[in-house]
Each structure stands twice: as structure tokens, then as C-alpha cells.
Amino acid sequence: MTERTISGEVYQRTLVLQRDQADNEARTIPAALSSEIPVSRWFGTEVLVHESDAIDLSRAVDGLPMLFNHNADQPIGIIRDIRLDADSKLRGVLHFSKNAKASEVWDDVRDGFLKDISIGYQIRKWKEDAESDTVRVTDWLIHEASVVTVPADHTVGINRNMEGIMPTENKSGGEDARDDLNVVDLKVTRERNLKEGQDAGAKAERKRQADIRTSFNAYLTRGGEYQDLLDSCVDKGITAVRANELLLSLLAGDAQPMAGDYRQTESNGSMDRGTAKDVKFQQGSFNRGGADVLDRFMEGAEAAIMVRANLIEDRDAQKAARRNEFYGMRMSEIAREYLRAINVDTKGMDQRGMVGAAFTRAVIGHSTSDFSSLLENVANKAALIGFEEAPETWNVWARKGSLSDFRQASRVNMSTFGDLDVIYENGEYKYGTFSDLKEVLTLATYGKMFNISRQAIINDDLDAFSRIPRSMGRAASRKVGDLAYATLTGNPTMNQDATALFHANHSNYVAGGSGAAPSVSTIEAARTAMALQTDPAGNVLNISPAYLLVPKALEGTAKVLASAEYDPAGTAGTLTPNTISGTFTVVSDARLDAADALAWYMLANQQMHDTVEVAFLDGNDAPYLESKDGWSQDGVEYKVRIDAVAAPLDFRAAYFNDGN
Q: Does the predicted TM-score (pTM) go above 0.70?
């Protein structure tokens, strides 16, 4: 802040009279005389500080003179009870005298023909803001108050005078020499102060440009974008402080929006090396909260959209989202808020143009629009919700694996390790080996595309952000389940012996005509067959079944078998203990009904034995969502994909009964 003293010149401010509180008998009316409302002056934006040590009321001790049109020759009364209120307004009560002019003015005030009260005051000291044109008057003397006919500036909210009329101006051509008003030649004073202001302004401008150039000099060799940003900051009047902020953002590769003292407008996309020279700046603060405004926009808008799209079920999270400023906004309004967050001027844009601009505009260092990223985040979370809520059962009985690429991968048969050798005294340990029996897996990619158009944004179509990607997530989950169950129902050929997974040669297959529904006896037969499986060397593996997989049609029967104390097939008089109770977990799935509503399977614990593996690229078992700006369609295209494969690893830990 800089400080200087000005004396001599008198200014006026105008406020509206409170006519509804007039007292006809006492000829009084209360009035707000002045406030801290900013007023434009030739030297800048003036703010009268309304504090007890700033206002000199020495001339109002016995009442302040009340004039008509600031004419000292036309006194019409006195203002008493002058006080400074807590709302930073100076108030008093106007008492009209009974002279002819005062009576005439009183009648016009009472009838509403005269509405404005204006004060005349002298500035003694002010403080000038180095970063703006604001001038705070810290010492001022009030001279008089007048009822006025025509305020000098009627276009602003409370009718204020710009420069006013000298209260001692002599209409007859003479000069009033009253010393108490400290009258000087207005023209001389104005010209002197104007020159002082111009000199100070030129000096400040030279310093601003020098400070900006000093900050940029060390980085100009890095690329043309630094020179472009320097030229734009110098040419468009950006402060040195703000220029430093933009330089740091450019150095970080992630420039923040031009919030604060200036507003950015664009005509052809984001501000980068190719467009920085064309960026226009408009004075007029658009401060949206500093450098993290974009992050706060992304977080708040995402939460609001997800609550509106019913993607958030947590009550506390819902309440928090409903309290943020974006809740209840249509999608097109959120697009407008995004443009405001990165300081793109939306005046004159229709909805289609505004939404299109939101899809394409990005701040410095961003290759894509953050608005597109916002929609992608919502769509991705919706897809994950759909993926997780899908009623899949494969992960109960199958092993989840990871593959690093799309090349064919091998899984060595773990049951071929063989038994341990006897080690006699001073005997030698031998290395155990696996045979060359192995199964192979090769990842495949499964996916689908969908589009969120500008029309969907304008129409506030929340299905585009909720139901569609959510359905895509469920479809991805369903695809993985299809792959897993196909390893059973498809009965694929094993790589190790070129024989089907379920086959008589594998001692794990009960063919049609010999099969039967799940029962104590048929399940005991399955348990025996699995326990007697041997490795290639003939060693018995003693495998126990852990899961009974049945179609939905057999789910009830299977659950009774799994938990009944007695054999459900027994009669009331011949109760037989249920020997299989609690020895396995029942898993039912409609895919088995579609394949064969009578067939059933038993599998061993997948962590102990090789059964079925479902593998994903780098172990990522969730769908992956990608986006790009639409070309064939007007909007953004999204691709949901998942990379997965399912394959049986060994026949020894699996069993099949045709059920017929």
C-alpha cells in the first residue's frame, strides 16, 4: 500500500431517502447519509472507510447543515443525531426548517418527488492498493448534506455522484471566501492530481513489466510457449504476482486456470503454445478459490452426478454430496461450471456450443478436457459397481491367476511331483522333478463401446452415466463367469493327454444312462473316485471334494444333502446317518441349467489342487474403461474391456455325473 495526502477537493455521494418513515408534524425524516459502497472516481475506485477514527464529525457536533442541491445560499434545515452504526453506515435525522424553500422541499420529499440525499465531504488521507485501482479513504471530513434533484450518476445501485459540485459555488460569479470549507480551484487541483496519478501509474507499469521479464528470462530458451506466455502477460496487464503463478504452472506442466484478477476467453481450444498469443483477458475478478479450484470442481461435480444417478448408496456420502454446490444442477449446467472453473467465457454460447466447448477445452499441460475425464470417472465407477454387483459364483470354486501378456502361458501339472524318497544314513537327497505334463492359457480381450453424446448432456440423460456403463460392467462380469463355467460344460480337451477333461479314461466321468441325481450314495461314489486318483507314477493322491456344483433345478436337493443329519432318502422307520453332511459347499448357477438341468460336478479345493484357473492381464480382474473424443458421433466414445482366460489345469481334482 502507498499513502499520500490530498486536501481541498470536495466530493459528494448520494443515497435514497427513507420517505416511508417521515414525520409530518415534526417535519423530520431519518436517512442513511453514507456507506462503504465503492464509487468510481477519476483517480480509481473510492471506498470511504466507515470507522470512528476515519470520519471527522467535528462540524456535526451541533448538527450538520442541510442544503438544497449543495447550494450554501439555500439552507433548508439541520441534521441531528448523527451516528455510525454497526453496519458501517452513517445515519442521521433530517429536520426541515419552516422557511419558504424548506417548506417547498419538504412537501416534495413527503410526496415522493424528491428522493435523494447527498453529502459533501473532503478527503484528507487515503491508502492506495498497489495491486488494483482501489483507494481506501482513511481520513475524511463531512461538511454538509443536501436534498438533491438530479444525482450525477443514476445508473448505479444507490445513486452516487462522481465528482459533484462545489458546495460554495457562487452563482452570481463572485467567490465565497469562507475558510471553513477549505475551497480551492477544482480545475487546478484535478489537473495536478491527474498528473501525479499518471506519473505514478507509468512508474508502476514499468516496474510490473520489468518484474515479469526478470522472472521469465531464465526459461525463455526452453521453448516458444514461455515467450508466448511472457508476451501475453505483459501485453494484457497481468500482475507480476499472477505472472509468476502462471510461469510456475507451465514449468510444472500443469498450469492452473487464470483465476483471480483476470478472466480468460478462448476461441479455439486450450491455451497452449499455438494459442497463447490469441488469449484475451478481461479485467474483472473471477476468483474461484485459487489453484485447487479445478480439483474441487472435479470432486464436487463427480459426487453430485453419482448421487443423482443413484451410484452412491452410503447415506452419509449422499448427504455430503447434496450439500455441495453442484447437486441439483443439470449436466449442461455442470458443463458451464467447468468452463467457468478454467475461466472460459461462456457469454453468447448456446447449450450445444457450451457442452461442446466443455468436451474440448483443457488447461495448459492437459492433453484432454477435464470435463471428459469427469464423465469418464463417473462412467468407470458405474461400470465397476455393475461388475461387483453381478451375481457371479465362479470365484467360489475357481482359482484366480495373473498373466503378464497375451502370449501362450503354461501351467505345470503339480500332481506329478511324486512321493518323497527314503533317505538312509549318509544317504543323498535327490531333486524332485515335474513331468512335462502341462496345460496352456492364452489371454483374450473382450469388450464393447458406447457413446455419451452432447445431446445426452443437454437432455440431462443420467442413464448415459449410470445404467449404460453399469450394464457394461455387469456384462464384463458375466463374460468372465461364462468363460469359467465353459471349462466344465464345454468339456475341453486337456493338453497333457489329448483327452477330454471328463472322460472314462480319467476315472472322473459318469456318462448318460449310468448317471443319477445327487444323493448320499452318488456323492460317496464321487468322493471315492476322486480319492483314488493317482499321479503319473501311480501314487494315490487321496483328493477330497470341496464343492458340489449343481444347476438351479437341483439347488434345494443339494443343500439338503449338505446339511441334513440323516440321509434324506431314508424312511421314518429306518433313519440312516448322513455321511456326507458338512463335507462340501453347494454352488448353483443357471449356466448349468442351460447346459443340462440334471448334470452335476464335484471339485476339490482350488488352493490345494489344480482345478480351474481364471487368469487376468496383470491380475486385474475388473473391467477397464477408456475414452476418446467422438469422431463418427458427436460426443465422447467409451470402450469397456477385460482381458481374461479360463482353462482346466488337471482332471484329477474334478468329477462329472451326467445325472441321467
A: no
